[in-house]
Design brief:
Elements lengths: L5 E9 L1 H16 L5 E8 L2 E4 L12 H7 L2 E4 L6 E4 L3 E7 L6 H18 L5 E3 L4 E4 L2 E11 L2 E9 L19 E2 L2 H5 L5 H16 L3 E3 L7
Parallel strand pairs: 1-2, 1-12, 3-4, 9-11
Antiparallel strand pairs: 2-6, 3-5, 6-10, 7-8, 8-9, 9-10
Helix pairs in contact: 3-5
Length: 221
Protein backbone atom coordinates (compact mmCIF):
# COMPACT_ATOMS: atom_id res chain seq x y z
CA UNK A 1 0.00 0.00 0.00
CA UNK A 2 1.36 3.42 -0.89
CA UNK A 3 2.11 5.94 1.84
CA UNK A 4 -0.60 8.47 2.67
CA UNK A 5 -0.34 11.87 1.06
CA UNK A 6 -0.55 13.57 4.45
CA UNK A 7 -0.74 12.97 8.18
CA UNK A 8 -2.67 14.66 10.96
CA UNK A 9 -2.05 15.03 14.67
CA UNK A 10 -4.00 16.21 17.69
CA UNK A 11 -1.67 18.29 19.87
CA UNK A 12 -4.05 19.11 22.71
CA UNK A 13 -3.80 22.53 24.35
CA UNK A 14 -0.56 24.24 23.41
CA UNK A 15 0.81 27.80 23.27
CA UNK A 16 0.40 29.66 19.97
CA UNK A 17 4.10 30.55 19.71
CA UNK A 18 5.17 26.90 19.90
CA UNK A 19 2.82 25.84 17.12
CA UNK A 20 3.96 28.76 14.95
CA UNK A 21 7.56 27.57 15.29
CA UNK A 22 6.56 23.96 14.64
CA UNK A 23 4.75 24.95 11.45
CA UNK A 24 7.83 26.69 10.11
CA UNK A 25 10.00 23.66 10.89
CA UNK A 26 7.55 21.33 9.20
CA UNK A 27 7.27 23.60 6.18
CA UNK A 28 11.03 23.42 5.69
CA UNK A 29 11.01 19.63 6.03
CA UNK A 30 8.09 19.25 3.64
CA UNK A 31 9.80 21.47 1.10
CA UNK A 32 12.95 19.35 1.38
CA UNK A 33 11.00 16.11 1.02
CA UNK A 34 11.82 15.09 4.60
CA UNK A 35 8.26 15.05 6.01
CA UNK A 36 4.73 14.48 4.74
CA UNK A 37 2.25 17.29 4.47
CA UNK A 38 0.69 17.61 7.91
CA UNK A 39 -2.56 18.84 9.45
CA UNK A 40 -2.01 19.99 13.04
CA UNK A 41 -5.13 20.28 15.20
CA UNK A 42 -5.01 21.89 18.61
CA UNK A 43 -6.43 24.27 21.19
CA UNK A 44 -4.57 27.37 22.34
CA UNK A 45 -4.09 29.25 25.56
CA UNK A 46 -5.93 32.61 25.33
CA UNK A 47 -4.17 34.82 22.79
CA UNK A 48 -4.97 37.69 20.44
CA UNK A 49 -3.00 37.39 17.22
CA UNK A 50 -2.22 40.22 14.84
CA UNK A 51 -2.09 39.29 11.16
CA UNK A 52 -0.01 41.16 8.62
CA UNK A 53 -2.89 43.56 7.95
CA UNK A 54 -3.83 44.08 11.59
CA UNK A 55 -4.77 47.45 13.04
CA UNK A 56 -3.82 47.79 16.68
CA UNK A 57 -6.93 49.87 17.41
CA UNK A 58 -8.99 46.74 16.75
CA UNK A 59 -7.85 45.55 20.18
CA UNK A 60 -10.49 47.17 22.40
CA UNK A 61 -9.08 46.41 25.85
CA UNK A 62 -5.96 47.94 27.47
CA UNK A 63 -2.92 45.72 27.82
CA UNK A 64 -3.23 45.73 31.61
CA UNK A 65 -6.76 44.37 31.45
CA UNK A 66 -5.74 41.73 28.92
CA UNK A 67 -2.99 40.68 31.28
CA UNK A 68 -5.47 40.45 34.15
CA UNK A 69 -7.63 38.16 32.02
CA UNK A 70 -4.65 36.03 31.04
CA UNK A 71 -4.85 36.95 27.34
CA UNK A 72 -1.53 37.36 25.51
CA UNK A 73 -1.00 39.46 22.36
CA UNK A 74 1.36 38.38 19.59
CA UNK A 75 2.10 38.95 15.92
CA UNK A 76 1.37 36.23 13.38
CA UNK A 77 2.73 35.77 9.87
CA UNK A 78 -0.72 35.00 8.44
CA UNK A 79 -2.69 37.53 6.46
CA UNK A 80 -5.70 39.31 7.87
CA UNK A 81 -6.47 41.47 10.87
CA UNK A 82 -6.98 40.73 14.57
CA UNK A 83 -8.36 37.45 15.86
CA UNK A 84 -8.66 35.52 19.10
CA UNK A 85 -7.67 31.96 19.96
CA UNK A 86 -8.53 30.26 23.21
CA UNK A 87 -10.13 27.37 25.06
CA UNK A 88 -13.08 25.75 23.32
CA UNK A 89 -11.81 26.66 19.85
CA UNK A 90 -10.49 24.04 17.44
CA UNK A 91 -7.50 25.50 15.59
CA UNK A 92 -6.21 23.77 12.50
CA UNK A 93 -2.95 24.24 10.64
CA UNK A 94 -2.88 22.38 7.31
CA UNK A 95 0.76 22.59 6.26
CA UNK A 96 -0.06 21.62 2.70
CA UNK A 97 1.33 22.36 -0.73
CA UNK A 98 -0.80 24.92 -2.56
CA UNK A 99 -1.51 22.94 -5.71
CA UNK A 100 -4.43 24.80 -7.28
CA UNK A 101 -3.93 28.35 -6.04
CA UNK A 102 -4.58 30.10 -2.75
CA UNK A 103 -8.32 30.61 -3.34
CA UNK A 104 -8.76 26.88 -3.93
CA UNK A 105 -6.78 26.21 -0.72
CA UNK A 106 -9.18 28.42 1.27
CA UNK A 107 -12.20 26.85 -0.41
CA UNK A 108 -11.00 23.32 0.40
CA UNK A 109 -10.55 24.24 4.08
CA UNK A 110 -13.97 25.86 4.15
CA UNK A 111 -15.62 22.89 2.44
CA UNK A 112 -14.26 20.60 5.14
CA UNK A 113 -15.54 22.82 7.95
CA UNK A 114 -18.97 23.28 6.32
CA UNK A 115 -19.28 19.49 5.94
CA UNK A 116 -18.49 18.90 9.62
CA UNK A 117 -20.97 21.56 10.71
CA UNK A 118 -23.63 19.97 8.51
CA UNK A 119 -23.28 16.70 10.45
CA UNK A 120 -24.05 18.72 13.60
CA UNK A 121 -27.20 20.21 12.09
CA UNK A 122 -25.65 23.61 11.36
CA UNK A 123 -26.07 25.04 7.86
CA UNK A 124 -23.07 27.27 7.13
CA UNK A 125 -21.45 28.79 4.08
CA UNK A 126 -18.06 30.04 2.86
CA UNK A 127 -17.86 33.71 1.89
CA UNK A 128 -14.93 34.70 -0.25
CA UNK A 129 -15.70 38.43 0.15
CA UNK A 130 -15.36 38.13 3.95
CA UNK A 131 -13.11 35.07 4.28
CA UNK A 132 -14.68 32.73 6.76
CA UNK A 133 -17.48 30.26 7.33
CA UNK A 134 -20.69 32.03 8.28
CA UNK A 135 -24.10 31.24 9.70
CA UNK A 136 -26.19 34.24 8.72
CA UNK A 137 -24.29 37.33 9.84
CA UNK A 138 -22.32 35.40 12.46
CA UNK A 139 -18.84 34.03 11.77
CA UNK A 140 -18.21 30.58 13.17
CA UNK A 141 -14.82 29.87 11.59
CA UNK A 142 -12.03 32.31 10.69
CA UNK A 143 -9.22 31.71 8.18
CA UNK A 144 -5.75 33.07 7.51
CA UNK A 145 -2.63 31.66 5.87
CA UNK A 146 0.94 32.39 4.93
CA UNK A 147 2.46 30.84 1.81
CA UNK A 148 6.16 30.45 1.01
CA UNK A 149 7.64 28.13 -1.61
CA UNK A 150 4.02 27.18 -2.39
CA UNK A 151 3.53 25.59 1.02
CA UNK A 152 0.90 27.11 3.32
CA UNK A 153 0.94 27.39 7.09
CA UNK A 154 -1.67 28.73 9.52
CA UNK A 155 -5.25 27.83 8.64
CA UNK A 156 -8.55 28.03 10.52
CA UNK A 157 -10.09 28.64 13.94
CA UNK A 158 -13.48 26.97 14.52
CA UNK A 159 -15.51 28.20 17.49
CA UNK A 160 -16.77 25.06 19.20
CA UNK A 161 -17.48 26.01 22.81
CA UNK A 162 -15.56 29.29 22.94
CA UNK A 163 -16.39 31.89 25.60
CA UNK A 164 -18.26 34.59 23.61
CA UNK A 165 -17.01 37.29 26.00
CA UNK A 166 -13.48 36.74 24.70
CA UNK A 167 -14.43 38.31 21.37
CA UNK A 168 -15.54 41.49 23.15
CA UNK A 169 -11.85 42.33 23.52
CA UNK A 170 -11.36 42.83 19.75
CA UNK A 171 -13.00 43.78 16.48
CA UNK A 172 -12.85 40.25 15.04
CA UNK A 173 -11.10 40.31 11.67
CA UNK A 174 -11.75 44.07 11.56
CA UNK A 175 -15.49 43.54 10.91
CA UNK A 176 -17.55 45.87 13.10
CA UNK A 177 -21.05 45.08 11.82
CA UNK A 178 -21.03 41.29 12.12
CA UNK A 179 -20.90 38.91 15.03
CA UNK A 180 -19.24 35.70 16.16
CA UNK A 181 -20.96 32.44 17.05
CA UNK A 182 -20.09 28.86 18.02
CA UNK A 183 -21.33 25.30 17.73
CA UNK A 184 -22.41 25.42 21.38
CA UNK A 185 -24.45 28.57 20.87
CA UNK A 186 -26.15 27.32 17.70
CA UNK A 187 -26.73 23.66 18.57
CA UNK A 188 -27.10 23.86 22.35
CA UNK A 189 -24.25 21.40 22.84
CA UNK A 190 -20.87 20.71 21.28
CA UNK A 191 -18.54 17.74 20.95
CA UNK A 192 -15.23 17.86 22.77
CA UNK A 193 -12.27 18.99 20.69
CA UNK A 194 -10.52 15.57 20.76
CA UNK A 195 -13.74 14.02 19.43
CA UNK A 196 -14.19 16.68 16.75
CA UNK A 197 -10.55 16.63 15.56
CA UNK A 198 -10.71 13.30 13.66
CA UNK A 199 -13.98 14.37 12.05
CA UNK A 200 -12.28 17.48 10.69
CA UNK A 201 -9.29 15.45 9.50
CA UNK A 202 -11.60 13.09 7.62
CA UNK A 203 -13.49 16.01 6.08
CA UNK A 204 -10.21 17.60 4.96
CA UNK A 205 -9.18 14.32 3.36
CA UNK A 206 -12.31 14.56 1.22
CA UNK A 207 -12.16 18.27 0.48
CA UNK A 208 -8.43 18.27 -0.39
CA UNK A 209 -8.86 14.94 -2.22
CA UNK A 210 -5.98 13.02 -0.69
CA UNK A 211 -5.59 10.53 2.13
CA UNK A 212 -4.72 11.82 5.59
CA UNK A 213 -3.53 9.27 8.17
CA UNK A 214 -3.32 9.89 11.91
CA UNK A 215 0.11 10.55 13.32
CA UNK A 216 0.99 10.11 16.98
CA UNK A 217 2.46 13.42 18.05
CA UNK A 218 1.76 13.99 21.73
CA UNK A 219 4.16 16.87 22.14
CA UNK A 220 5.65 19.65 20.04
CA UNK A 221 8.88 18.42 18.49
Amino acid sequence: MSAPAATWAWLGRVPFAETAALQERLREKIGAGQAPETLLLCEHDPVITLGRGARREHILVPDAELGRRGIAVTAASRGGDVTYHGPGQLVGYPIFRVRRGIVAHFEAMAAGIVAVLDTLGIAAEWRRSQPGVWVGDQKICAFGVHVRHRIAIHGFALNVDTDPAAFDTIVPCGLRTTGVTSIQRLAGSAPSLPVLAPEVAAAFSRSFVFSIAKRDLTSIE
